[in-house]
Amino acid sequence: MNTQRKIGKGRTAEVFLTAEGCALKLFYPEYPMQAVERELRNARMAVALHIPTPRCYGLVTVQDRAGILYERAAGESLLNRLMRTGDVAGCASTLARLHRQLLAQTLPEDALDVREFLRHEIERNGKLPVEEKSRALAQLAALPGGNALCHGDFHPDNVLMDGERAMVLDWMNLCRGDPISDVAQTWHLLACGPLPPDVPAAQEFEEMRGLLADEYIRRMGMEKERLAQWLPVIKAARFG
Ligand SMILES: Nc1ncnc2c1ncn2[C@@H]1O[C@H](COP(=O)(O)OP(=O)(O)OP(=O)(O)O)[C@@H](O)[C@H]1O
Ligand SMILES: [Mg+2]
Q1: From the CA of 142, how far away is ligand 1's center (Å)?
Q2: Looking at residue 159, what is its pLDDT?
Q3: Which of 6, 5, 1, 236 is closest to 125 using CA atoms?
Q4: Containing H/E element for 150?
Q5: Mean pLDDT of 182-188
Q6: Of the ligands numbered here, which is closest to the C-alpha atom of 22?
Q7: What is the predicted pLDDT for the residue at 234?
Q8: Which of 14, 25, 95, 199 for mutating ligand 1's site (highest number of atoms within 8 Å of CB)?
Q9: Domains in the chain, start-ordered, CATH in brackets?
């Protein structure tokens, strides 16, 4: 398979345009196969729920690297658009509109619970000091459940914009849960999450990210205080 033209790069994978016009998401070497299979299952679930997202065609292997073949979505990422235009309000508004659309969906009881997902991430986080780990696990045990569709990694580089048409990408962390947990995830990613590799003008993003995070929360119609119970747990899960 031709992997000459790279059209994207994230923290888990590179994405190439194939000769057939598909997007091949090729995970970095050693990336666990179980996680790749989970993304495929989740992406298919998102398509079945009629969420605007690329169709997926199945698993492939290229030179010992696992990959998923997706429909290619046209346009540029919302992060790119933000960096090109500096339009913080427009980016926040698009994110909030799409996120409300996702959170209005419910997932069945047998979908992974976001608390279970976070517990696993905290437990396997080798960089988190032991005391902080115990504290975060105790806080997690007191948090509410829910049935809302939680993307788990909803940030502007996981949204592709073709004019005003948006597509949501990257379903690795899909869970069901309290919608506020997912808003807290996005707030955390906007305010202090790591940038994807090779982002041009990273310094400019650093300067606007606080404003973007606050503007996003405002457009979600939510008080930041409501995120407080989830934020320490999310920080612990993503630590390091
Ligand atoms: N189906 C697609 N069509 C067009 N471009 C895509 C497609 N899938 C991914 N991309 C591009 O590749 C980039 C990386 O893809 P993706 O977000 O799936 O990778 P990731 O490593 O899981 O990212 P993250 O750092 O968010 O975990 C996207 O931001 C997007 O620009
Ligand atoms: Mg991504």
Answers
A1: 34
A2: 97
A3: 236
A4: strand 148-150
A5: 98
A6: 1
A7: 98
A8: 25
A9: 5-71 (3.30.200.20), 76-237 (3.90.1200.10)
